[in-house]
Amino acid sequence: MKSVSPSMTASLVALPLLLLQGTTAFVPLSTRSSSSSSSSTLRHPATSVAEDAAATTAIRRTQPGAGSMPEWENRKAGVPPEVFLQSDLSQPDLSGMWECPLTRWDSENIDIVQAQKEAKQATGTCPLEWRCASEADNAMGVQYFVDHKDEVRAALLQHGSVWLRGFDLMQTVQGFRQMYHALGLDPCLDPLHSSGLRKFASERDAVYEEVNKPSLRGHYIGLHCESTTKRTAAYAAFVCFQRATESGGRFLIADGAAILAELDTKLLQDLYRRQIRISVSNLDVPPVLPQIIKDGFKSVVAAAVAPKFDMDLEMMYESDGTPGRLQAVEKAESPINRHPVTGLPVWFNNAHNHARKLRDRRPCGVPEVGMTEVFYADTMEPLSLEDCLEIQRASEKHITAVPMEPGDVLLVDNYRVLHGRDIFQGDRFHAVSWFTWDGEDKQEWRGEERRILEKNGLNKAINQMMDWLPKDFESNQSK
Questions:
Q1: Are 259 and 347 in contact (CB under 8 A)?
Q2: Crossing angle of helices 455-468/6-17, nearest 10°?
Q3: 208: which of 81, 177, 267, 399 lies 20 to 30 Å off by Cα?
C-alpha cells in the first residue's frame, strides 16, 4: 500500500471542515411581492417536515423552509470588485489579529423545562432591523456609528442580531472596517482558519470571504454557530458587497433561544442527557485491508494531520456503520448552553447543518469526504430520522431568510443566533469578520493568543483545492 502524505491527508480531512460551521443554502426563495429575479416557491416548515417524513424509503431532496422572508428592495447594485475590495493602506495592518477565543461552556445542571420557559420569555424580534432613516444619516458615514455605538451594541445583546440596512458606508471593505471599529468590535480569526474554510477577502482588514465559491453555490448551508467544541467567535458581522447576480443567496439566521423554546421537551431532555458528537470528515479505505494497515493509516491521520486543525478530534472507524470508513469526530458536547453574558439558555449546536439525514434531503454540493454526521454521544449511533425532523421543524420555523443588498450588514451574537446561507445562481460576493471578546471586563475571555502565521499555508492550499472543484458540483451520495 502506498504511503499517505500528510499534505494529501490534510486535504481530505480539510474538505469537510469547510462545512463545519457548516460553513453555511437555500433553493432560491420567493417573496410575497417582489420583482426580483431571485424568486421561487417557499414551503412552510410544517409542510416540509410532513413531506420528508413520508419519504423515508426513497430519499429525495426538497427545499427547506423558513418562517420569515422580508422582501428584496432592489436597491442600486453597489460598486465593482476593484473598488469594494480596495484596502486603505494608511490604516494599520490587522493580519496579526487575535486568535479565536476558547468556547465558553456553561451547560451543567440545566433544568430543561425551566430553560424553555426562560428562552420563550426572551424571544423577540430577530433580527432587529436598523434602517438608515434619512439621507442626512447616510451622509454622516462612520460618524453615525460612533454616535450610535451604545444603542447598537445594546440591541445586539438583547435581540441577538441587528440588520443594518440601507447604509452606503459598508459597500466597501474600507467602510465596513470603519463601521465595525466604530462599534468597538475587535477582530479575530475564524475558529477553523487553518481548515481552508474561507480565504481572506482583505487580510489586512481582517475580512474573510463568505462561502461564495462556484462549486458550492448549489449547496444549502444549514443553521450553525461559528463554533467548535474548542473555539467560538463572540460576534460576527456579515456584509453584502454584491448580491447574487441571477437568483437566490439569501442569508439565514435563527434565534437559538426561540429554537430551544420550540423544540419538543422530551427530545431536549434526551439529547441533553445523552449529549451529541459531530463527525467532520469521511475517509473511506478498503474494508478488506488488514487491520494493522488500517490502524497505521488511522495513526498517521491522528498524529500528523488532525492537530493542525486546532480541534479536539478522535479518529474512529465505522461510526456510521459504513465498512472501512474513518471519521474525525469531535468530543461530546451539550446541545444547550447558557449565554456567557446574559446567562440565557440557548440551542447551541450545529445539528441542523451537520445531520446526515437532513443533508441527504436538501440541496447538497459536497463529496462524500465532506459529509458530516451527528451522533448520540453515549452510543455513537446517528440521530434518528424522527429526532432530525423535529430539529428541522423547530429550526426552520424560526429562520429569517434575509435579502441582503450591497452595504447591508448583519451583526450577529454568535452564542445566541445561528446562521446559514441559501443556494444561489450567478456570482455573489458576501464577506464576514469575526470578533473576540472586548471590554476590560472580558479580556480574560479573549486570552492572549495572536494569529499563528504558519497556519496560513495550509489555509491557502485547501482553498486552492476547493477552487479546482467544478462549478455547481452536486453530491449524489445518499444511501
A1: yes
A2: 70
A3: 399
| E strand map for 249-335 | 251-255, 276-284, 313-317, 325-330
Length of the chain: 479
As given in the structure block, the three cell numbers for residue 198 are: 474561507
Parallel, antiparallel, or unpaired: how do β-strands 276-284 and 373-376 relate? antiparallel
Q: Quick one: DSSP state of residue 29?
A: P
Backbone angles phi, psi at 429, to 5 degrees: -135, 100
* DSSP assignments along 175-234, one per residue: HHHHHHHHTT--EE--TTGGGTS--EEEGGGTEEE-S--GGGTT--EEEE-SB-SSBB-S
- Closest listed residue to residue 2, CA positions, set 303, 282, 308, 296: 296
Amino acid identity of residue 360, one-letter, is D
| pLDDT tens digits for range 275-290 | 999 998 888 989 999 9
Spell out the residues 6+ positions from residue 382 whose beta carbon is closer than 8 angstroms to its own: 320, 355, 356, 357, 373, 374, 375
Mean of the pLDDT values across residues 320-342?
94
Secondary structure of residue 380 in the 3-state scheme: coil
CB atoms within 10 A of CB 67: 16
C-beta separation of 261 from 112 below 8 A? no
Q: Model's pTM, two decimal places? A: 0.84
